Amino acid sequence: MDIYSSGKPLFLDANASASMDTAIHEDDSETVAMIKELLETRIRPAVQDDGGDIVYHGFDPETGIVKLKMQGACSGCPSSSVTLKSGIENMLMHYVPEVKGVEQELDDEEEDATLASHVD
């Protein structure tokens, strides 16, 4: 298929693609919509100011856990877990009573790096 005649954009807007995870959909519960709105309007801008980003990976209503992934400068930053727990978790729990905690999603490379840092 010829990309030029497909009508699709040649370049993706990084901000638009980063925000797709927090787009509110019709089938989102009120809780999920509130979480996404907070992430998009209050949390993501602060994280982006530090050169990182955050991606929403889901909410488990049974456990009250929000799953997030830190990206960019925040993904390798030693204080990202402090940011996640002290900043993000506290804000979400304050505004959304159904949230009981926040967990960071790691890819395989990040898990290996985390394990290696605990072995040393």
From TrEMBL:
Instruction: Quote the InterPro entries the UniProt record gives.
Output: FSCA_dom_sf, NFU1-like, NIF_FeS_clus_asmbl_NifU_C
Q: Name one GO molecular function term.
A: iron-sulfur cluster binding
Superkingdom in the source lineage:
Eukaryota
**Could you tell me which residue ranges the NIF system FeS cluster assembly NifU C-terminal domain spans?**
35-103
What biological-process GO terms show up in the record?
A: iron-sulfur cluster assembly
Its GO CC terms? mitochondrion
Write one Pfam family the protein is assigned to.
NifU
- Family statement drawn from the similarity comment of this UniProt entry: Belongs to the NifU family.
UniProt protein name: NIF system FeS cluster assembly NifU C-terminal domain-containing protein
The organism named in the record is Stephania cephalantha
